[in-house]
Amino acid sequence: MIDSPIRFALIGSGGIAQTHIQAFAKNGLARLVAVADLRRESAEAVGAAVQCRAFGSAEELLSSDCEVDAAIVCTPPNTHATICGQLSDAGVHVLCEKPIALDLGEATKMIEHADRNNTILTMASKFRYTSDMIYAKQLVTSGVLGEVLLFENTFAGHVDMSKRWNSNRTISGGGVLIDNGTHSVDIVRYLLGPLSSIQVIEGKRYQSIQVEDTVRIHAKTDCGALAAMDLSWSINKQTPWYVSIYGSQGTVLVGWKESKYKRAIDSEWTVFGSGYDKVQAFTSQLNNFCNALRGIEPLLITSQDALASADAIDKAYESMKTDGWVAVDNYPLIAGRIAS
Description:
Elements: E1 6-11, H1 15-25, E2 30-36, H2 40-50, E3 53-55, H3 58-62, E4 70-73, H4 80-89, E5 93-96, H5 104-116, E6 121-123, H6 131-142, E7 148-156, H7 169-172, H8 176-179, H9 181-192, E8 195-202, E9 214-221, E10 226-232, E11 241-247, E12 250-255, E13 259-263, E14 270-272, H10 278-293, H11 303-322, E15 326-327
Parallel strand pairs: 1-2, 1-4, 2-3, 4-5, 5-6, 7-10
Antiparallel strand pairs: 7-11, 8-9, 8-15, 9-10, 11-12, 12-13, 13-14
Helix pairs in contact: 1-10, 4-5, 5-11, 9-11
């Protein structure tokens, strides 16, 4: 894998897969050689568009003569355990879309299975790879904000979920809490470190679906910061900043169109970055995964981070039932694996 592009398969050819395809087009380290989807016609359409082989399932791909080194899994969460297990058994490294599994127990078994096969399995987490978020973390760790006291995050836009698998608990594991909240808790951990406790309050269910469509998350971090996250499919909470970080000596605002910071001693805001660039984030994520497979750099998001997210979401659902605070297991931040 050092001297030639890493051969990738894309498992699932739905909406999120299309951005991964754009990332492959901008990446010189990877080559998409196969796409698999239970909707064979969809796989064939993608295969024709990007000039790679098409299959009706991961199992069919693995039983063929098509050689792959790694795969990106873009299927619904209830299929992740089976598909990732099949790929790992074949010696294929996996970048799995979030949430990595329906719950912590399933996620743990998946990662232990990959470890036994000496393959890498980790969870996609696009926001860690946005240029503005990376710069925001540098500001936090540099100390120019002083002590971080408060974090806020909003992912709230009106989306009709009546016909989407994300609102089917059997397929998705829950509603907006696991769907968007997986991103939210991972962003907190990335910027501020491990969580210590979490509380979730569910709002009124507006859409006629079987799962929660609006929640507010409160969390405390090991470093003592308080985090507040608003998630909804039923309201359009318009704000130019999806992440706000408030420190004793300054503030950072990470936005959709631009990001900026201001220290207590500054009279003006300093603008950095140009906002959220989805394709840039996916391309950087693919680069990092490829370089980890090549043994060049560690993963920015590890299997430990994936387990921490799964644990936090499990505890969040426990809290949502009681409106009380629930302790979150400690998953210390560790350096990511590289292929041996």
